[in-house]
Design a protein that fits this description.
single chain; 421 residues; alpha+beta; 6-stranded antiparallel beta sheet
Length: 421
């Protein structure tokens, strides 16, 4: 009996060593293949390989040099983690079959970039085209509109060091895919992004025909040391106290968003001011309604946009109400203060303010020559000049970049229409 136990233990040990060696060889083969394939654009080196029987394999001491950009970055340890050992062993088989593994996580420890390097300089350079995303990143900071590498260096950053984790969980029965990304950057803060996709096929190729739908998304910032440093740095650049700079920050945010046609409710701006004053935690949750078109939100009234996005905003663990905004004309001149008003004799206005109003799809032929906005049943958004309605088709000119193009759509595909009167 003792011999049986002894040989049994030796057999288990031998199997464990065999699995360990197999994992080590597989990871080394994959890494060496990747290094060879990427060698024309980057040079990669590493110091060691780790593995575990709970479904983890990792690479230590990774150095990546990109000659084209004359820059490099470092990773102390990168690890791939599965639900268990069997999932890890079946990983290559699943990928060869063109299927997603049902669960996977990537842990990265000690990802380090040099702030003064070309890579960070290119990332942080001022964007060419303004958008709502660039509006949120604009700052009032002397001659600087955005925080770039030079500003980061002046604020005391020499390197950006991040620990990050990316994971997903796929549920074949429910056809849902949940993503989670957490990045903790030293002296900046912790950032979290979570979102879920519905109608998710297990085969990546099927998504071209039947794309998944975004069902929920959550953005979260905790212990925002970066915002505190910006407040202090930019207040000094403008010669203001940090208390006075809070209002400057809100005015800058309001101007930048209005340039994108968005005017936040005054109470919402006030709540954001509380976050700028004490940036402990900010959490935004969205649960878009099914069939919502992200590209066509400007087509709807503000209250309808809020109803479709179903947002929830928490600032320093306190829910913010109301979450309201209005569309504005970015070229409109701001109204003067009450004491500056000079009233002229009332005269009849030569014309009324032009605005978009909803019309019936069946009445489109009556509005030839007018500018319209519409959304199709499949969620596509269009805006252009209506030429004619003929043989069940709508013919119009739409803007593409600096030019225009002629196109047509079938009447039965159009869901909602607004015409500029």
């Amino acid at each position: 009996m003792s011999k049986l136990v002894k040989w049994g233990l030796l057999g288990v040990l031998a199997l464990a060593l065999l699995i360990k060696a197999s994992l080590w060889l597989s990871v080394r083969t994959i890494m060496n293949d990747a290094i060879e394939q990427l060698s024309p654009v980057m040079r990669i080196s590493y110091s060691g390989i780790t593995s575990s029987f709970d479904g983890r394999v990792g690479i230590s001491g990774i150095n990546v040099h990109v000659p084209l950009m004359r820059d490099h970055f470092r990773i102390e340890h990168a690890e791939l983690k599965f639900k268990g050992l069997m999932d890890l062993l079946r990983f290559k088989e699943s990928m060869s079959a063109g299927k997603f593994p049902e669960q996977m996580a990537v842990n990265i420890k000690g990802l380090e970039f040099d702030v003064h390097g070309p890579f960070m300089t290119q990332i942080s350079q001022q964007p060419e085209e303004a958008s709502i995303y660039t509006a949120l990143s604009q700052v009032a900071c002397g001659s600087s509109r955005y925080i770039g590498s030079d500003e980061l260096l002046e604020m005391g950053y020499r390197t950006l060091e991040t620990d990050a984790q990316f994971s997903y969980l796929y549920q074949p029965g429910a056809q849902t895919l949940t993503f989670n990304l957490t990045a903790d950057t030293r002296d900046m803060g912790e950032y979290r992004v979570n979102f879920a996709l519905a109608n998710m096929s297990e085969r990546p190729g099927d998504m071209r025909v039947n794309p998944p739908r975004l069902s929920t998304v959550t953005l979260e910032i905790n212990d925002d040391q970066y915002q505190r440093k910006i407040q202090s740095y930019c207040a000094g650049k403008l010669g203001q106290t940090e208390e006075a700079y809070l209002q400057t920050t809100l005015d800058q945010l309001d101007r930048a968003l209005r340039a994108q046609r968005i005017a936040l409710d005054p109470e919402l701006l006030k709540s954001l001011g509380a976050y700028y004053k004490d940036p402990q935690a900010l959490r935004l949750e969205l649960a878009p309604t099914e069939g919502m078109s992200w590209d066509g939100l400007q087509f709807f009234e503000p209250k309808d946009v809020v109803a479709m996005l179903r947002p929830v905003l928490l600032i320093n663990q306190q829910a913010v109400h109301p979450l309201a905004f209005s569309w504005v004309d970015p070229d409109a001149v701001a109204a003067p203060e009450e004491e500056e008003l000079v009233r002229a004799p009332e005269v009849e206005q030569p014309g009324k303010l032009r605005q978009y109003d909803f019309v019936e799809v069946a009445s489109l032929a009556e509005h030839a020559g007018k500018r319209l906005q519409f959304i199709t049943y499949d969620g596509a958004y269009y805006q252009g000049l209506l030429h004619k309605v003929e043989n069940g088709k709508v013919f119009l000119s739409v803007q593409f970049g600096s030019g225009s193009a002629e196109m047509f759509l079938r009447l039965e595909k159009i869901d909602k229409v607004r015409v500029l009167f």
